[in-house]
Amino acid sequence: MATLSSSSFSAEPVLSIVWGCQEINQSVFDRWNQGFVFSTDEPFALVQYEGGPCSIIAPIQAHIFKNMYKDFGDSWQKVTAGEADELLAVSLAEILCRCAGEGGSARLVVPESDPPSEGAEDGAQDGPGCRHSPGREASPGEGGRSPEERPAGLPSKRRRIEPAGFHSTLRLLELSTEAEVADFFRKNLPSYRAESGVLAFLYSLIQTKVGKRRG
Predict the structure, then answer these.
(1) Which class of enzymes does this protein belong to (predicted)?
(2) What share of the chain is helix, strand, coil (3-state, %, to 5)?
């Protein structure tokens, strides 16, 4: 059974692990401010707007490929958008439950409501490799693409969200079975495809690991 707890969640340990500080640079946070979005050219290929979140996106993409080949075999090229969404939900659940371990609970960090935004910001997809990390500022010209080089079909604007505003909305949802976790992702996939979906999942992985150690 799922239990929602707002009092047991503290952002400080997560902020320390991910960002290394309490004062998060807005421009660095902006690069991580994206959801799990599929390409318009390949319905099962996740896109990355800027340098940074490839460390989260790449393993999820690998799980999507694994499940796609397992479920569709040689017909994988005919995967529809709806089937790609199902692959994403199942892959997110698999990874989170693997972190929880046998008999452990998955701890999902979810925003209670939409965080306040500050207008919109251009997004650009990163080139091959990932040379940025959330702990430092990228130098001009290091990774990423200009808006003019963005692949056709990708959104040109993303909301700018303040780190403090985003973290103030986070709550903890604890689920005990992989079926529950997969069902949660199916029902709430739009939240993970929207801004900060990647960060919400990263925080969920950390909270699940921390909870496993304490258990």
Answers:
(1) hydrolase
(2) 50, 15, 40
Helix (H) or strand (E) holding 174: strand 170-175
pLDDT band at 2 (very low <50, low <70, confident <90, very high): low
Cα–Cα distance, 63 to 84 (Å, whole number): 12
DSSP class per residue in 27-48: HHHHHH-----B-SSSTT-B--
Mean pLDDT for the chain?
A: 77
Q: How far apart are CA 140 and CA 4, in angstroms?
A: 43
Which uninterrupted H or E stretch holds 211? helix 197-214
Q: What single letter denotes the amino acid at residue 54?
A: C
CA atoms of 185 and 42, how far apart (whole Å): 21
Between CA 204 and CA 106 the distance in angstroms is: 8
Distances (CA, A) of 169 to 59, 189, 200, 207: 27, 18, 11, 16
| Cα–Cα distances in angstroms (integers) from residue 11 to residues 8, 33, 69, 166, 198, in the given order | 10, 17, 37, 11, 16
List the one residue out of 113, 69, 112, 104 whose CA is nearest residue 178: 104
pLDDT per residue over 51-107, tens digit each? 889 999 999 999 999 999 999 888 888 888 999 999 999 999 999 999 999 888 999
Answer positive or negative: Cα dihedral of 162, 163, 168, 170: positive
